[in-house]
From TrEMBL:
Keyword Signal part of the UniProt annotation: yes
Superkingdom in the source lineage: Bacteria
Membrane-spanning ranges: 247-267
Keyword entries, A-Z: Membrane, Signal, Transmembrane, Transmembrane helix
Positions of region (Disordered): 192-211
Signal sequence segment: 1-36
Protein name, as recorded: Peptidase
Amino acid sequence: MRTRSATPHARLAAGLALAPAALLAGVALTPAPALAAPTPTPSPGAATVTKAGTSFLSATPVAAGQPVRVGASTGEYLYWSFPAAAGETHEINATVSLAANRSGRSTWAVEVFDGLRRRQACTAGAQTPTADASTSTVAIGCTLRRVRPWAEPWSADPLPGTYYVRLTVVDLPEPDLGLPIDVDLLISTTGDADTSPEDGKLEAPLVPPTNAGTVLDAVPTPAPGGSDDDGWNLDLTGWLPEAGSRWVWTTAGGVLAAVAGVVGFALTRRPGRRVAR
């Protein structure tokens, strides 16, 4: 029995029928190119900040898009503050240039606090990366949640106000403490500050009061009570304890105990016997 070969028209029709399937298979097998996240860039003309605070009260103010470059020592706590408005999402990116003569691995951390000193969670970024002894730089990042115009008092949602960034090392060998480092930090902002109030609005931003003290230039006058030419105060009333002080009661109790002991000994002492000659 002889089989008939397919005609050229039949082969062409079969090829056209299989072409869409092969094209779909090729598209499915080809991986889509990954889109790299845009690198935050400083704002044009922004002045570089070269300082960092050592506590919440001394945090250095930084604006969004303003670059920061600070030289510090390993183990120091570095603080910066920045304002946040409702509807904004902030991203903190820091690069720490490490010393070459390190003895081991080190773990770094960036933390963000709001105006009530509440620690805010990061939704993305390497918040606590670890650098090997051979690594020259370590990248640290934190993307905050979107700032809300209002929130319930019991929640920890981010609200408008002042935010604080703290950068430090959390784990390292003890010999590496004090080694010099260089920190490059940038805070970027996305979103629209003019958002809907979401059925509520914060009365005032969360900005803690920082009332600095005043320096007294006047020379204090000596207290009344008599003083000689050398400035020594001759009034000795300040050395006497108060009437209700424990020193008064302790002294009085000791005196009464001594008197009671002498009286008791005098009452119980027997007269000595006389020896006849």
